[in-house]
Amino acid sequence: MGGTVVGGEAGAAQGQAGQAAAGQGSAGSGGRTEEQPAGPPAGHGLSEQRGLLSRRALLRGAAGAAALGAAGAFGAPFGSGPRAFVGITAAGAQPARSSALAAAATRGVAPAAAETERSFLSRPDLAPPRLQISLLTSDPAAGYLLLTPSAIPSARGIDAASQLAAGLGQPGVMIVDERGQVVWFQPTTGLATDLQMQSYRGDPVLTYWEGAIEAGIGYGTGYVVDSSYQPVAVVKGGNGVQTDLHELQLTPQGTALITAYAKRPADLRAVGGKSNGYVHDSVVQEIDLATGHVLLDWRSLDHVPVTESHQPYAAGIYDYFHVNSVCLYGDNELLVSSRNTWTLYRIDRKTGAVLARINGKRSDYKMGAGAVFYWQHHARSLPGGLLTVFDDGAAPAEEPRSRGLVLGIDDATRTVHLVRAFTHPANLLTPYEGSIQLLPGGGAFIGWGAQPYFSQFAADGTLQLDGRFPTNDQSYRAFRSPWLGAPKSPPDVHVAEDGLGQTVVSVSWNGATEVASWQVRGGTAASRLEVVATVPKAGFETTITCREAGTVLAVAALDARNRQIGISALKPV
User: Fold this and answer.
1) Which CATH class is domain 492-572?
2) Is 286's pLDDT higher than 90?
3) DSSP designation for 52
C-alpha cells in the first residue's frame, strides 16, 4: 500500500476508539427514528417524473440531487419488495451476522449462494474487499453503492499480503450493486476517501480523494473522472497546502470546495498550553477547476479562537478545530463543519467572515430537543430549510450511539429543530468519520465511518439494506446514486481449457453498467467469427463454457436490447 494511516481521525480519538465500539443493543429488523412533533418545513419536496426522462437526463438530474444531498420529500417509505439475503464471505468462513442478517434469518429468508472470493481470472490485478449485505427491501432505482474501502493498519497489525488473505482487499474506489456485486473497482496507490457522484458542467462525474493520512489529516490529491472513467480535473490545494481527505465538493460555478491543514504558531495558554505553541490550522479553499486558481483561502485561526474547542489540549500540535466538511449555504455563503468545536460555521463566500455559528459553545441558534450534536461530520445544506449532519457522538462518547440527523433550520428566528434521527439497530457508536445522504422519499443512506457498516433506511427508520466490510476495513463516507459507466477500454477476457476439452471463457468489463449479456464469437480468423454462445451477465465476471470455439475468439458485450456496446480483443484458443 502506498498510503499509510497513523492513528484515528483525530489524535484524541485513538485512545477513545474502544469506548466508541458498537453498542450491545439487540438485533432488530429495523432502525429507530427520533422525531419532533413538527414535520418538515412547508414547501419541501421533490417531484418524481422519471418515466418522462431519458436515462441521460435522469442521471444528470441525479447528479444535481446528489450535490444537494439528494433531497426528497418526507413521504411514505419505499415500497416493500421481495427480501433477499446476500452473503459474500471469505472461502470457508462463516458469515458474521449483523443485526440485519439476523433479522433476515428470523424471518425465514433463504440465503442466496455466497460469493466465496474476490479474485477474477479476467482481471487478476483487482482484489476488492469482500462484503456482506443484508437486503431486506430491494430498491434498484436508488442506484449503486459508492464506497472507498481502506484497511486500518494500526488496528489490523498485518501486512498487505495478510490483508488480502483476510478478505480486506486492496484500498481503492469501488462501486457495487445492492447485492454487493462489483461494478467498478480501481485500486489506489494511497488510501482513498469520499467517492461520490456529482455534476460538472452539466454532466455526471465521479469525484474522490487519494493520498496518505496521518493522525486524521490527509495529504493528497482530489480527482474528477467522467462516465468513461477518464480524468476531467485534478484538484490540488494552493498557497502551500495539500488537499485533505475530508472534502471535495463541486459547485455549479465550476469550482471545488476542499479542506486542508497547515501548521501555525498560536498562543495556547488559554487551553493549558504554551504561549509559543502550534495548532493544525484548518483551511477551506474554493478552487477554479479549469485554472487551478484559489478563489478563497479561509484559515480557522483567523476567525475562531482555540477556546471554542472541545478537544482537550495535549502536548504537540493542537488540532483544536479539525475541519471535516464544507458545502454551499445558499449562493453567497459556505457551511463549514468543525469536528472539535461541535460547530457548523456560516461564512461569507467572498470575505471568509464568520456570519453565524450553529451548535457548539457560542451557538447563534437555539438548538431544539434532540438537535444538539457532538464531534459531527458531513454537514449538508438542503433545499427547504433542511440540514443533514452525521452526529458521531464520540470520541470520547457524549451519546450512547451515533445518529444520522435531519434538522430543520430557520435563519429568521435562529432556531434548529430535529426533523428525524436515523440510528442503527445495533446502536453503533462511531468515533470518527461517517456520512448521511438523504434519499428521495425521505429515507437515508448512511456510512458509519470508522465502523465497518453502511445502511439504508426508509423514511420511518425501517432498515432496508445493511452492509459491512470485514473487520478493520472501513469507508470514510458511503453514498448511493444512479450511474451510467461506459469505459473506453475493451472488455477483458481469459481463455482456458477444462479437463473435457471444452473452452472456458471468463469475461469482465470494469465499470460498464449497461451490459446485459455476453456473446462469444469463435472461428479460425478475425474475419470468420460466428456466434458460439450467448449468456446473461452474471456478476462482475461471467464464466462461459463452449464446446466448439475455433482457434480464435472474441467476446461482445450486448445491452438490454441486444445491441453490441463493446467487444474484446481477439484471443487465441
Assistant:
1) mainly beta
2) yes
3) G
Does pLDDT of 347 surpass 90?
yes
Residue 73 CA to residue 130 CA, distance in Å, equals: 34
Q: Which residue has the higher pLDDT, 89 or 394?
A: 394
335 vs 60, more confident: 335
Cell of 264: 501555525
- CA count, 13 A, side-chain hemisphere, 512: 28
Query: What's the predicted TM-score (pTM) here?
Result: 0.82
Domain boundaries, the chain: 5-44+56-481, 492-572
Which residue type is seen at 242?
Answer: Q
Instruction: Please check whether residue 387 is in contact with residue 409, taking contact to mean a CB–CB distance below 8 angstroms.
Output: yes
Length of the chain: 573
Q: Is the pLDDT of residue 421 over 60?
A: yes
Amino acid present at 310 = H
DSSP 423-456: E-TT----SS--EEEE-TTS-EEEE-TTSSEEEE
Average pLDDT, the chain: 82
The kind and range of the H/E element at 84 are strand 84-87
The DSSP string of 276-328 is: TEEEEEEEEEEEETTT--EEEEEEGGGTS-GGG--SPP-SSSB--S-EEEEEE
Question: What letter represents residue 413's amino acid?
Answer: T
| CATH top class, domain 5-44+56-481 | mainly beta
> What letter does residue 25 receive in the DSSP assignment?
P
Task: List residues bridging with 541 in a β-sheet.
Answer: 508
How deeply is 472 buried, as exposed, middle or buried, from its count of CB atoms within 10 A (0-12, 13-18, 19+)? middle
* Separation between Cα atoms, residue 567 and residue 548, nearest integer Å: 19
Query: Per-residue pLDDT for 50 more than 80?
Result: no
Q: Hey, which residues does 287 pair with through a beta bridge?
A: 256, 294
Prior bond to 395 cis, omega within 30?
Answer: yes
Strands across the sheet containing 248-250: 248-250, 255-266, 277-288, 294-299
**In 3D, which of 317, 322, 323, 309 has the Cα closest to residue 279?**
317
Average pLDDT of span 451-463: 96
Pairing of strands 552-558, 571-572: antiparallel
Of the pLDDT bands very low, low, confident and very high (cuts 50, 70, 90), residue 250 is: very high
* pLDDT attached to residue 150: 87
Q: Is the peptide bond before 305 cis (omega within 30 degrees of 0)?
A: no
